[in-house]
Amino acid sequence: MEIASDKIAIKVKDQLVQGHEFTIQLQQLFSQPGSDLGPAKDLVAKILGTFNDTISAFDSFEPISSSSLVTAVEGSQNASCDNDVKLEDSGDSRKRLGPVKGKRGCYKRKKRSETWTVESTNLEDAYSWRKYGQKEILNAKFPRSYFRCTHKYTQACKATKQVQKLEFEPRMFSITYIGNHTCNTKEVTPKIKSCIHHDEIIMDSEELKSPRLTTSIKEEEEKNHGSSTESDLQLVWQEMLLFEEEHHHHHHHHEGTYGCVETSASINGLDSTDLWSWQR
DNA sequence: ACCATTTGACCTTC
DNA sequence: GAAGGTCAAATGGT
């Protein structure tokens, strides 16, 4: 076994794990009462996400000819999706209210993905989410909201998050991230048609025809009411986003096409005014 | 007309 | 069987 590369890999992973640990400690430090660094927390969340991603990448294809594998598979899924030959009418005693359009559900067994939780006053991170559910939770005053990545179907991105208001600190949310994004968030692409072979079924239907979105960020004049600290935070947050952008594709010119749109998502009927979604 | 959210039903997990 | 997570029809917004 020529383990040269294996050794390196192990070392790298150890370092990652350590960095992960440190970040968690930092996160816990933040959650001490008295500090209100929302944006920093979100940043921490993202860092953690990166670590999780990398670490689990290692875990997933672990060379390991040896032992100690963790029976990771659990692929069994008795999801009853397979044989469609099943009856689908008459005999079923189940109550089906609406028009039966086909089998609903057909869930697959979930692969445990990385999860991590942060607490923050603003619900935004750099990704765009779509709400798909809300549930009352036992012994909790506030319901839990469920979000998935906007690009779940166009790009098969598995990331989701759950948001719930903290009972004793209603301005704060507990945000649990599940899985990491695999979508290209900025992938609207210049669309060089010339090199596309012509039957792309891919169809990323988001052409954003709304002309008013293209007005760039001249909305500096914040709409929040006087609260200077709030706006400061907002600005810091924006800067962080831009910073990140630049680092993603090194000095990409023409980054200014982001528009900021207020969404009407509401948690518990009480919509949070600091809910923003960034779109291109 | 399209797209996001709401909301109760449906499904899984414990 | 209860609690939590997900689906999708209905609804609402632009």
From TrEMBL:
Q: What is the lineage of its organism?
A: Eukaryota, Viridiplantae, Streptophyta, Embryophyta, Tracheophyta
Query: What InterPro entries does UniProt report for this protein, alphabetically?
Result: WRKY_dom (IPR003657), WRKY_dom_sf (IPR036576), WRKY_plant (IPR044810)
Q: Where is the signal peptide?
A: none
Q: What GO molecular-function term can you cite, just one? A: DNA-binding transcription factor activity
Location(s) in or outside the cell: Nucleus
Q: What does the UniProt keyword field contain?
A: DNA-binding, Nucleus, Transcription, Transcription regulation
Biological processes per GO annotation: camalexin biosynthetic process; defense response to fungus; defense response to oomycetes; floral organ senescence; indole glucosinolate biosynthetic process; induced systemic resistance, jasmonic acid mediated signaling pathway; leaf senescence; negative regulation of DNA-templated transcription
Output the PANTHER family linked to this UniProt entry.
WRKY TRANSCRIPTION FACTOR 30-RELATED-RELATED, WRKY TRANSCRIPTION FACTOR 54-RELATED
Q: Does the entry feature the keyword Iron-sulfur, yes or no?
A: no
Mark out the compositionally biased spans (Basic and acidic residues).
Answer: 83-95
Organism (species) = Eutrema salsugineum (Saltwater cress)
Alphabetical list of SMART domains matching this protein? WRKY
Q: What name does UniProt use for this protein? A: WRKY domain-containing protein
Lineage top rank: taxon: Eukaryota
| Start and end residues of each stretch annotated as Disordered | 81-102
Entry GO CC: nucleus
- Every WRKY domain range: 118-186
The record's annotation in SUPFAM superfamilies points to: WRKY DNA-binding domain
